Amino acid sequence: MNKKLLGMLLLLTGSCIGISCTDEEQPNPNKGEDNPQETTSKEIYYANMLGKDIMSELYYWNEDIAADLAQWNIETNEDPIGTVDRIRYHKGDKYIDKWTMMTDDMNSFTSSVEGVSTTYGWNLAVYRFSNSDDCFAVINYVSPDSPAEKAGLKRGDILLTLGDEDITVDNYLDLYYSTTLTSTLGAYDAATNTISFSEQQVTLHAINMYENPILCDTVYEFNGKKVGYLAYTSFDLNSIPKLVEIGKKFKSEGIKELVLDLRYNGGGYVITESVLASMFAPKANVDAGDIFEKEQYNAYLTEAYQQAGVSLETPFTTEFNYDDIGLHISTKDANIGLERIYGLISPNTASASEALLSGLMPYMDIRLIGQASHGKYCTGLMMSGEDSYENCPEEIKNWGVYVMVSIYQNALGETPCMPDGLQPDTEAIDDPMQPYQLGDVDEAMLRAALTEAGRHYETSDAGSRSLSPASRSRLEVPQKPIFGKRILLPPASLKTLKPSR
Question: N or C end of the chain, less CB within 10 A?
């Protein structure tokens, strides 16, 4: 066993094992100055060591990349970040592991994952005009109290310019990475399916802010029953108290079916996932502490857990007490009593979102509506240098690796989103160009769910006023660091170790 790595790996059960190291096994702080064989700086040398140690011991596919690990010379390699990216598990040119990554700025990475970043507070879809390099952006949603909301922007608004220039394939990333921008809005003509310039302009200044992931919660009543709706964009920690309030409200309303809108939710904290599971699952299963999820690890970690007598199964629970973040909350009185969930999914639905739906499938009726989800079926750890070494060299305290350590399963031993994502029972396409806000009963994906729930619509042509989503060429856009993450808070005995999906 390589004992350089402290690696206090935390299980979803809240238990942990330690891989300790002695002072003699610590990195030599003089390495790089006195060793003539070393050609890299101290920082790069230690970063190489960190990456190789983590990938050798904790990585789920460590045996599959053994040859690459053996060739990783930590004294001469100049690009540890690129090396981690290159050797993560792949077959030929196809990368099976799309998520493992190394960073030299773990603080910023962690802050962004926790929902705080410099932003305009919007989520966009960017499309390319036919036979042109020109593009237009459509707002999927804006965050409460954000610069975008304060400028009067909303879902469905179209952006056509960046300053005096058209949005193109060469500059559209400025919609995400600039700190100030002015944009002319577009006007959509439903009769001709065309977009033209309007006279309206907006100027925005990005700010550092917390983006509240709860976009909408409401209750619809029809056919003598009530159906709840929750649009939720990331499993963060700050939203937990409000989520419990919403659960209690839904319970008091007597709803038995819930439309859970996860179309823009790329993942987040396991504790938040467990809070929601405890409110959504049948009360009898929660009270019984039935299994919510299981984990599969590499051979080394599996043996270590077996020797420690630690279970790899995570039960439902209702008590959540975390002194380090001041969270003490119970969901004992917030179980809604649901019989069915309509999960709204898209390619942006990932990780903890997929895990929540998968974990509930053995216990209740889950109907999926939309398009195939992302397919993030493994659990990762966000391991900084300080997490990994008892006496961490100063040069790599802010380095870290987001490393895949396990594959999660539900109580039946199944991972429904592996390998190509959760597959919808009913196809529906998210189309922000429709003239409906999230929560509007005529919004396409919600309409599909409410139709299945028994709501009657007089007409069947909702959404006919928009350009067909299938006819648009959609560009790849930057994902927030939360995307594809599933993060578990450590107990007080640990500092910043964060398992994630």
Answer: N
